[in-house]
TrEMBL record:
Name this protein carries in UniProt: Superoxide dismutase
Job description of the protein: Destroys radicals which are normally produced within the cells and which are toxic to biological systems.
Pfam families per the UniProt record, alphabetical: Sod_Fe_C, Sod_Fe_N
UniProt record similarity statement: Belongs to the iron/manganese superoxide dismutase family.
Domain Manganese/iron superoxide dismutase N-terminal per the UniProt entry, residue ranges: 13-95
E.C. numbers: 1.15.1.1
Keyword ATP-binding belongs to the record: no
Length: 206
């Protein structure tokens, strides 16, 4: 499934979570999911609706808004809210209550071709998540025929750099602080071991 065709929706609508708020506990608590989704994610949707109302962007699809505003100083606020909607929806789909374990065969072979082993890939994802100073994201992406790990700051997203996201880990503090305080590595490790949705990543290989 191409990331531009999965659950990414119009900026006028907050997409539903792909799981109940309590489903990721104890790795990510229902309180964290409720706050993260119900306050932060919803806030980006509400803000974007206000920002584009009455403009030529109002009727555009979310991805079009992101691409139209990326890198434009006078559109930074619109870009940040639009990209955060996309990033968050992608993040929720990158998690699954029965995640972790081994990826589907095709994805695992692709990962091993790019990183040597699945463990090396996970270590590189964790390293990217830890190396992101301040708020941002760690991504597994497809760049041509090669799977890579990249990190982005704040609302930045690989889709504006012609990279195809496969999955992401949110390392903004609101993603983990209620459960882990400043222990970002514990959060990232737990997500990679127990929640990461390799099936979603495999679908995004296309």
């Amino acid at each position: 499934m191409h990331p531009e065709q999965n659950t990414i929706v119009s900026p006028l609508t907050l997409s539903s979570l792909p799981f109940p708020e309590h489903a990721l506990a104890p790795v990510i608590s229902a309180d964290t999911v409720g706050f993260h989704y119900g306050k932060h994610h919803r806030g980006y949707v509400d803000n974007l609706n206000k920002l584009v109302a009455g403009t030529g962007l109002a009727d555009l699809p979310l991805l079009k808004i992101i691409k139209e505003t990326a890198g434009k100083a006078n559109s930074t606020t619109i870009f940040n809210n639009a990209a955060q909607i996309w990033n968050h929806t992608f993040y929720w789909n990158s998690l699954h209550a029965d995640g972790g374990g081994d990826p589907p065969t095709q994805l695992k072979e692709k990962i091993e071709s790019s990183f040597g082993t699945l463990e090396s890939c996970k270590k590189e994802l964790a390293a990217a998540a830890m190396a992101q100073f301040g708020s941002g994201w760690a991504w597994l992406v497809l760049d041509g025929g090669t799977i890579k790990v990249v990190k982005t700051a704040n609302a930045e997203t690989p889709i504006i750099n012609r990279l195809k996201p496969l999955l992401t880990i949110d390392v903004w503090e609101h993603a983990y602080y209620l459960d882990y305080q400043n222990r970002r590595l514990d959060y990232v490790t737990a997500v990679l071991d127990k929640l990461i949705n390799w099936t979603f990543a495999a679908e995004n290989l296309g």
